[in-house]
Specification:
With about 475 residues, the protein is of the alpha+beta class. The chain contains 18 helices and 7 strands. α5 crosses α7, α7 runs parallel beside α9 and α13 packs parallel to α15. The two termini are about 40 Å apart.
Length: about 475
């Protein structure tokens, strides 16, 4: 059971919102970290990088994520039922004389149909040994998580350091890169990813201050965005505020600004301007440029229920991208469900694969969706698995190539989040079929969703799957038996 002593503070939550990272230290013995590093080194040298299999290959790693410090931090950012994603990787940074140049600034390839400002995803960088700047830790660019485009070489960056076992918890979209290892030692970093399964209904940290406190000396360019995330993490719903309705046309023009920070400031400020602000955001989504619409969608999410009627109307737009954005926003808002769910269920039959994928994922973001919505998700998952076997050359695979069945992926992820609210037999039937998908992440989500259901039928399916999928961490090319 999580104790309050290890939950995050208001100051730490604000740092994560504004800067996009937290450095964590736990009190596990150095001997354990050294043991893990030796095992990781052996695997890399003798078998190659195990990629997603690093955890079953070196099972002691799991102990690091079970410490109160790490569980408390992940709970504060992602909620108490966060999910350890099946994608993970071992990053091996050799000395500069063997691997000159370092890495390139980037965001990781994302798993949802769109990136989210609100923390539905996060990553942890774990260092097996004491890490110094000379050892080449992963460089991070504080505050860059809301920048879709690269902020520029003139922006400050940070090289997190610390003793063996140091973990850096980062917003999934934070810009980062491998820095140059100028030491004479190899550096190991294990990257793990985590997903939030439910929108917050209350603060999951040691919450004391009601209002967001802007850190001293910090620019207020992103203040409306930060305040929205702060309120969302507390489980607040946005109410009208008539005092903030001035200068709507100026704010609307600001959303079209080339500079990303100014555009997002305009979008989130419009979200605070009541019904009229929501109307302006929907107008931008309907008629604005693709760039301005892509920023307005975040404002529409922040506007909440006031934007829902306009977003539902947007589902009839001729542009599939805008229909897809509307699905994304409706799922993120999630209420009133009596309006949102029928619209998303209808979008599951859209002519565009992109829209259907987004609708499937969006249903999983709605709190306690109806049994009818869950059945629609199950049918979508079944059809997606059938279609992948019939047509492996679909244009659906043109982007996010690491997800080969995108509609099935979205439906399976949603059933992981909300499948328990549907009729168990219907859900289990779809998840059982998904275990035969050609997409490894569809299979992983289906497996995890079945463990959540825990019915006799679900356990029977899991046992059949486990017999062939079980990994032996001691088997390698040098072992005999």
């Amino acid at each position: 059971m999580q104790t309050n002593n290890y939950l995050l503070t208001d100051e730490q939550i604000i740092q994560f919102i504004t800067q996009g990272y937290l450095v964590l230290h736990n009190e596990l013995p150095n001997e354990l970290h050294m043991k893990v590093m030796e095992e990781v080194h052996h695997v890399l040298m003798e078998e190659g990088n195990p990629g997603n299999n690093i955890l079953p290959r070196v099972p002691d790693i799991q102990k690091f994520f079970e410490t109160p410090v790490v569980k408390g931090a992940l709970t504060g950012i992602l909620g108490p039922d966060y999910y350890l994603h099946p994608h993970r990787h071992c990053h091996y940074n050799q000395p500069a004389n063997q691997n000159p140049g370092g890495g390139q600034w980037h965001k990781d390839g994302y798993w949802s149909a769109m990136r989210s400002h609100r923390p539905w995803w996060a990553m942890v960088f774990y260092y097996t040994q004491a890490v110094t700047e000379e050892l080449g830790p992963t460089a991070i660019m504080p505050g860059s998580q809301y920048n879709e485009s690269y902020p520029g070489d003139d922006k400050p960056f940070l090289l997190p350091t610390g003793p063996a076992g140091t973990m850096v918890l980062v917003h999934f979209d934070l810009w980062h890169k491998a820095s140059l290892n100028t030491s004479n030692m190899d550096r190991y970093m294990l990257k793990f990813q985590f997903a939030r399964l439910n929108a917050p209904s209350k603060p999951d940290w040691n919450h004391k201050e009601e209002l967001f406190q802007l850190p001293k000396g910090t620019s207020d360019t992103y203040l409306p965005l930060w305040q929205d995330i702060w309120s969302w993490l507390k489980g607040d719903t946005r109410e009208d505020d008539d005092s903030k309705r001035a200068h709507l046309s100026l704010l609307a023009s600001l959303v079209a600004a080339e500079e990303e920070g100014s555009a997002l400031h305009g979008a989130y400020t419009l979200a605070e301007a009541g019904e009229e602000g929501a109307h302006e955001l929907i107008k931008i989504l309907q008629e604005g440029t693709s760039l301005s619409a892509s920023r307005a969608v975040y404002g529409a999410i922040a506007a909440g229920a006031k934007a829902v009627p306009g977003l539902i109307g947007l589902l009839g737009h001729i542009d599939r991208e805008r229909r897809s954005w509307a699905c994304f926003a409706l799922g993120m808002i999630g209420s009133p469900a009596k309006l949102v769910l029928p619209a998303l269920m209808k979008a599951l039959a859209d002519e565009s694969d992109q829209v259907r994928r987004q609708a499937a994922e969006a249903i999983g973001l709605v709190k306690e969706p109806s049994a009818q919505a869950i059945e629609a998700l199950a049918n979508t998952l079944i059809q997606a698995v059938v279609n992948e076997k019939q047509d492996s050359d679909s244009s659906l695979w043109l982007d996010q190539g690491y997800i080969t069945n995108k509609i099935g992926y979205g439906a399976a992820l949603s059933l992981l989040r909300v499948g328990k609210h549907g009729e168990a037999g219907v859900v289990i039937s779809a998840l059982s079929m998904a275990l035969d998908s050609g997409d490894r992440y569809v299979r992983a989500y289906a497996f995890e969703a079945l463990t959540y259901l825990r019915t006799t039928e679900a356990i029977d399916v899991l046992l059949r799957y486990y017999r062939t999928a079980r990994w032996c961490p001691d088997t390698n090319k040098a072992s005999m038996f």
